[in-house]
Amino acid sequence: AAAAAWPELEAAARERRRELSLSGATVAERVAAAGGRLPAELLALRLLQSLELSGCSALRELGPGLAAALPALHTLVLRDNALGPAGLGSGLGGTLPALRLLDLSGNGLEALPAALGGAENGPAEPAAFPQLRSLNLSGNRLRELGPGLAIAAPQLQALLLSGNRLRALPGGLLPPGAAAGSGGAFPLLSRLEVADNEVEELGPDIAALPALKSLDVANNQLRELPAALADCPRLKEANFRGNQLKDKRLEKMVNGCQTKAILEYLRAGGRGKGKADSAREEARKKKREKQQKKDGGDREQDELEEARKLLVKVLHVSENPVPLVVKASPGVKDVRPFIVCCVLKGVNLKPGNALKRFLSTQTKLHEDICEKRTAATIATHDLRLIKAPLTYDVRPPDELKIVPLGRKETKAKDLLRQLQLEAEEQRKQKKRQNISGLHKYLQLLDGKDSYPCLVDAEGVVISFPPITNSEKTKIRKDTRDLFLEVTSDTSLQICKDVMDTLILKIAELNRFTLENKEDSASDNESDALCGAVNLNPSQNAEPVNLPLVVEQVRVVDTDGNLKVLYPSKTDLATVSSLLTVMR
């Protein structure tokens, strides 16, 4: 009877879903009838990677063992419920090793659960949330935060605390003795929002957050801003509006000037600077210079500054007159269920060895973040040669035909047999077990009755993951616009993480090409490998330093229901410290 009351959970178990959202009046009634607790059936959905439980004022407890039961969770949204520290504690106790986003906003929390450092001595090692990137605690009743949070979530990049009752910042958030640039607590924290609190003091130890780029302390009770703000090496955006600052000139600047001007004013010691102020400023200057050398010297600082200039612009589906769509067939669910795609426009592969660097980068990503293609596989295509719409499908080995890169058309089973023979010959010649090239990935298809493939509108297979993509859509030196594809049999989040990194690496390569003016006439070997070069003079013109454009691509099921949209609002967050995304 209890299971029948939750048809969403039955469906999720039957369809082996990885995402689940529960909200609304009906859910609230069921939770209230169960005494404010979640059903035990939820803990049986071990494949869940994204779980949202929001807008349920009756929800007071997660129930014990949530973390242990759902180890694959990377997104947990518990917004606008009635969860207190005790109700959260039993559910979050333990470790969520894959969790990247945790939203606890709007719960009326007066203290944090032990798993987030709310206990008196903070959480014990190891970290409860080793991969957590974003934590939203807005709209609660928190008065203070303990240093245990830095232990619980050491990789935190965004901490949202607006609408609480905090009185000091950083307050107890940093462990005693935290030094600027020490790399101790929160070495990656780049976004800190503490608007609409009761903050009376912004302490100088704010400079101990070495990666801080965005700070929002609007609508608090600040009377002064510390000069130490100028020592935050990466601070680019700051909102101090809605405070009653004693320095009226500074208050005017806060309401009308850019962050850079405010920091310069603070660095100079403000208006009416005397000898003592000058001495303090000189001491701070020496301290900054010493810290910069300690962090790796001026050259490394310059590299960090340059890295922050990388730009990409996201073109939303609604803004695109002809958006590209990928339709996923039901059969991929049991073979290679996850795919993420996007279009990237504005790359420059023509000069010198730009194309070689691009291909080499893709190979390195396959070895590293893709874990030798066991976690995910990347495929890159020339967008001009794509015939949309595309279908992500499965076909038997003797029916899947493809023209592999550098080879003639063949069936998948014949290609694998040929690669296996080449691998054996390679072993004999080199007299060792290690093999190279595509031969390393043959075992990834062992035991599969059908193989995954990406098919264009003409029925041509353009990609056969994790083995190869097609000669038809091969990237050449005159390619400017790319269709990017990442597939996985492990998780959707891995696809997104790999795609984030791929876009970052392409942006870095594009900037390198722009800054290093190589001759567009490449060596003969590259031309032979990559095809004829288009010698249209207009295409050989000096490239303009414009942001790359990432066009969103939807993946839908056969009925047109959305499965995944990339990049969404939360995507590209993993590379946000090196990439500026204009949405």
From TrEMBL:
Comp. bias (Basic and acidic residues): 274-284
Region Disordered: start-end pairs: 271-302
PROSITE patterns: LRR (PS51450)
Entry-linked SUPFAM superfamilies: RNI-like (SSF52047)
Ranges of residues in domain B3/B4 tRNA-binding: 335-511
Keywords, in A-Z order: Coiled coil, Leucine-rich repeat, Repeat
GO biological process, one term: phenylalanyl-tRNA aminoacylation
Pfam families linked to this entry: LRR_1
Entry's Gene Ontology molecular function annotations: phenylalanine-tRNA ligase activity; RNA binding
Coiled-coil ranges from the UniProt annotation: 409-436
Name the record gives this protein: LRC47 protein
Species whose genome carries this gene: Galbula dea
